[in-house]
Amino acid sequence: MGSSRLQSTVRRLYEIVDELEDIYPGRPFTPDGHLVGSLGECLVADAYGLELMPPSNAGYDAKATDGSKVEIKATQGKSVAFRSKPVHCIAVKLFRNGSFEEIYNGPGEQIWKHVSGKPVPRNGQYQIYLTTLRKLQETVESNERIPRIS
Asked: How far is 24 from 39, CA to CA, in rounded Å?
């Protein structure tokens, strides 16, 4: 890839980042882990009617209409990371076309039971595979899920 093409591509990326930050003021869309996380948070908030909290809010990213705290986890890979037990979690896999697949939507207690008793990783984050979250989702009752509105 030539440097002029690379520079042009990076410029376009930052133009898109600027546009996203205009749509969601105060939410960072820096081209790193924040980008995937912020995209997921915004897509999920819109789809489930959640109110986003300020970025880096400890333990949750949004509130449901009933006031419950919701941790949103988004990935394009095979796992997501948790530092602490969420009250409620919606974990999604993002796709390049802007859509996502719901992997888990339920109480954080289910997730935390899965990691309890395991040694805390060096970075303080438990990695949980999407395949594991899919299995945990099978144990969540429909009344324990936040309904999708769009």
From this structure: 10
Cβ contact 82:121 at 8 Å = no
Number of neighbours of residue 38 by Cβ within 10 angstroms? 23
**Residue ranges making up the domain that contains 31:** 25-144
Please enumerate in sequence order all residues whose Cβ is within 8 A of that of 136, keeping only pairs 6 or more positions apart, or say none: 104, 106, 110, 111, 114
Determine, yes or no, domain membership for 8: no
CA distance 116 to 95: 31
Question: Tens digits of per-residue pLDDT, 71-111?
Answer: 999 998 999 999 999 999 999 999 878 889 999 999 999 99
Distance CA 84, CA 72 (A): 13
Confidence (pTM):
0.86
The radius of gyration of the chain's CA atoms, rounded to the nearest angstrom, is 16
CA angle 36, 147, 134 (to 5 degrees): 60
Low-confidence ranges of the chain (pLDDT < 70): 1-3, 6
| CATH number, domain containing residue 30 | 3.40.210.10
